[in-house]
Design a protein that fits this description.
The chain is an alpha/beta fold. It is about 40% helix and about 20% strand. The protein is built from five helices and five strands.
Length: about 130
């Protein structure tokens, strides 16, 4: 069982995920990091979300940043999006994450701010 699932859209997003992981390591919170792209691995992503016992998802992605919204559309659990500064200073990813349609909420932290995503997850979990 993991308490938090940290999903990254590509291996290039791992450094942002590691920032969140460091916070969880310090607090003794179980987590796992998985590379699952909303575009390249949609079936694997669906399977992972449906089988996951995580209480909170952190979805880290750059460019179109579809991953947080894709996760939120497939679960009723809290989803925290972290935009990555891959292009356009990360503004493209930031705007993609904060513009979710009604009924598909995604909390969003600052660009490349994996630490704040972890801190928000801890607050959601009341830890």
């Amino acid at each position: 069982m993991v308490t938090v699932a940290i999903l990254i859209g590509s291996e290039s997003d791992r450094s942002v995920a590691e920032r969140a992981a460091k916070v969880f390591d310090e607090k003794g919170v179980d987590y796992e990091i998985r590379v699952l792209s909303a575009h390249r691995n949609p079936v694997e992503l669906d399977n992972y979300i449906s089988k996951s016992d995580a209480e909170v998802f952190i979805a880290i992605a750059g460019l179109s940043a579809a991953l947080p919204g894709a996760v939120a559309s497939r679960t009723g659990k809290p989803v925290i999006g972290v935009p990555v500064s891959a292009k356009l200073g990360g503004m493209d990813a930031l705007l993609s994450i904060v513009q979710m349609p009604k009924g598909v909420p995604v909390a969003c932290v600052g660009i490349d701010n994996g630490e704040n995503a972890a801190h928000l997850a801890l607050r959601i979990l009341r830890m």
